[in-house]
Amino acid sequence: MPVARVSAGQAGVRGAVTPWGEARRAAADAARRLPDETVPLADAAGRLLASPLRALIPVPAFDTAAMDGYAVAGDPPWRVIGSVLAGGERMAGPLPPGTAVEIATGAEVPAGADAVLPVEGALRSGDVVRGVVRIGRHIRRRGEDCPRGRIVAAAGAAVTPALLGLAASLGHDTLTVRPRPRVAVLVTGEEVVAGGLPGPGRVRDAIGPMLPGVVSWAGGRVTGVERVGDDPRVLARALTGAASGADVVAVCGASSRGPADHLRGVLDAVGAELLVAGVACRPGHPQMLALPPGGPPVVGLPGNPFAALAAALTLLVPLVAGQAGRTVPGGSRSSIAGEVRAHPADTRLVPVRRSSRGAVPVGHDRPGSLLGAATADALAVVPPGWHGGPVELLELPA
Ligand SMILES: Nc1nc2c(c(=O)[nH]1)N[C@H]1C(S)=C(S)[C@@H](COP(=O)(O)OP(=O)(O)OC[C@H]3O[C@@H](n4cnc5c(N)ncnc54)[C@H](O)[C@@H]3O)O[C@H]1N2
Ligand code: MOO
């Protein structure tokens, strides 16, 4: 459904309010997918493959001894005519029948060898060795694990430590991975302090520490958290500064209409288009999504920390996930086991814990308190006027 677009100046805190589901879709629709990146293996850890991973070489790349012992040809006894070490010189010609070479695990088995006789089963006397072997035993044949050209992991697969090791063993120095959108965070509020015990009238910044995990869960990364106080000129300058080198700017606080809430005015002054001017949800209704001309999208998160989390899941996560080429981490549906009152006009986002009885509200869900969200594993999405029945559960970043 098309979303009404307004300038920041036209929109009030309760004016041009977008229904919750529509706001999420608008954020996803506003996301322009960023280009994939080709990065050295070490930088690819934890990313998602942008294209299928192919074997550039067969595995093993050559017939390989799987045991320390003797590579033997023909029937015993075998005359020992040399030795081959892993990484050492390969034999010039094929191993003649009735001969053997000492061989190390990982060394290339000479052509003509029928098997490797492990040293534990070898009876050596002078330059003659005896033992019992089965044809092909303890030789890993070239390409038997994986032929050259085979796809070993699909696009979208997570680059785990094992996959990184596999990529290296298949001959890759770099991997092409999905982009990780850069999110610059601006924290407004003269009363907000970054460390220690807050003095009178002050509060600790709870949103700056919370956002990196939310953003990386969505596939992005927070590049910096800057504190900007309540001066609109400082906010305007910081917005311009943050815009260069970021794919999204998230502004925390200053989203409402109070005397120190300047975000709407600053966005209006630069002619930003407001895609979402407010969302019909509790908490988090003053959140917004704006497109300043020539700059990255700006997401306004309310200053109340639980409202900021709810808003981040509503607008920031779909936007970042869309830029990263990911689908938004999926939710599920559940009945609610406990007392929840629906709001007549707004969607309520209620911290719950899953249980065999259904989703149990954990309480402490005031906009200013993260006590509930910190002990919950999901937010129950309670539609306006809800009278019972299963609801969507929105996963909380782990
Ligand atoms: N007249 C109205 N006033 C308010 C409304 C309204 O509809 N009409 N909505 C209320 C709701 S709901 C919210 S949410 C807040 C949103 O306000 P802002 O985004 O402008 O945020 P601030 O006013 O700056 O701060 C609100 C609150 O949160 C504390 N805060 C701010 N930043 C942080 C931070 N980084 N970490 C922890 N706490 C923070 C701040 O001290 C305030 O207590 O507006 C209501 N008012
Ligand atoms: O909606 Mo406010 O965003 O309740 O805290």
Tell me the layout of helices and strands:
Elements: E1 6-7, E2 18-19, H1 20-30, E3 37-40, H2 41-44, E4 53-54, E5 64-65, E6 69-72, E7 78-84, E8 99-103, E9 115-118, E10 123-125, E11 128-130, E12 139-140, E13 151-153, H3 161-169, E14 174-177, E15 182-188, E16 192-193, E17 203-204, H4 211-217, E18 221-229, H5 232-243, E19 248-252, H6 263-269, E20 273-276, E21 279-282, E22 288-291, E23 298-301, H7 305-323, E24 332-334, E25 347-355, E26 358-361, H8 371-375, E27 378-382, E28 391-395
Parallel strand pairs: 2-21, 7-8, 15-18, 15-19, 16-17, 19-23, 21-25
Antiparallel strand pairs: 1-20, 3-14, 4-13, 5-12, 6-8, 6-9, 7-11, 10-11, 20-22, 22-23, 24-28, 25-26, 25-27, 27-28
Helix pairs in contact: 1-7, 4-7, 5-6
The structure holds ligand LQZAQKY5 and molybdate ion.
Taking the alpha carbons of the first and last residues, their distance comes to 31 Å
Enter the CATH topology name of the largest domain.
Molybdenum Cofactor Biosythetic Enzyme, Chain A
Mean pLDDT: 94
**Roughly how much helix do the residues carry, as a percent range?**
10-25%
The CATH superfamily of the largest domain is known as MoaB/Mog-like domain
Radius of gyration: 31 Å
The CATH class name of the largest domain reads: Alpha Beta
Sheet/helix structural class: alpha/beta
The strand order across the widest sheet is 1-20-22-23-19-15-18
Envelope shape = elongated
Enzyme class: transferase
Function: Catalyzes the insertion of molybdate into adenylated molybdopterin with the concomitant release of AMP.
Catalytic activity: adenylyl-molybdopterin + molybdate = Mo-molybdopterin + AMP + H(+)
Cofactor: Mg(2+)
